[in-house]
What does this fold into?
Amino acid sequence: VAVAARMAVCRVTKVEVLVGGTAAPDEGFSFKITLDVAEALKEDAMFRCMYVSDADDDAEGEEELESMDVGNEPGLPQGIMEFMLGAPAPPRCLLEKGGGPLEAAGLYISGIYRGKEFFRVGYFTRHQYDSEELQENPPETADWSRLTRVLSEPITTHFLIPWDGPEKMLNPEGEEDGATGGGEERPAIWQSRGSTGPDNDEERGGTDFLRGRSRSRSRSPL
It folds into this structure.
């Protein structure tokens, strides 16, 4: 019960990709995000849009495309909030750094409160040519005018954080971490594929950058 109560304080119930789901490589993104705040919070939340060019490089493999604070400067009022998060396309040099536009990469939106991640929705990104011949036999130098960027179906993860409560995390069994011998702090999560709503089948597998990791800092590396 305690776990469910803390998770329900604030949650993202919907993320819509309005622009950029299937687009030219240089076209930016626009997301519509719905936030359900069950209890008023003392501080703003931060949302970041991150591009992942190299999942094996924690230091240089991520690039922030955009970030924004959401709230009343400070504080999140109780109720339903809808807001837009726009982000530019990753620059071509970043795509080249990750092995070129035909290599799989990733994009995720992270919701953060008091430095702790409470939500993440991640997408695989890929670029494909507009003809089967070019796709099967791509030129050595990318022909950007013939490429289209495509986002996969989302994978969504919700994390347990203390919100405005004490700086102690709860494990999925509802006990404080460390109360029975001092394990590492870890979040309770539920995860869904293909939708950003928490009512879908829970999944605990998945790719790290899509699933996210709990860190005290706002940036969650792969």
User: Anything to note?
Assistant: Residues 154 and 215 are 22 Å apart (CA to CA). Residues 1-5, 172-186, 195-206, 213-222 have pLDDT under 50 and may be disordered. The first strand starts at residue 10 and ends at 19. The helical segments are 2-7, 92-97, 132-136, 208-211.
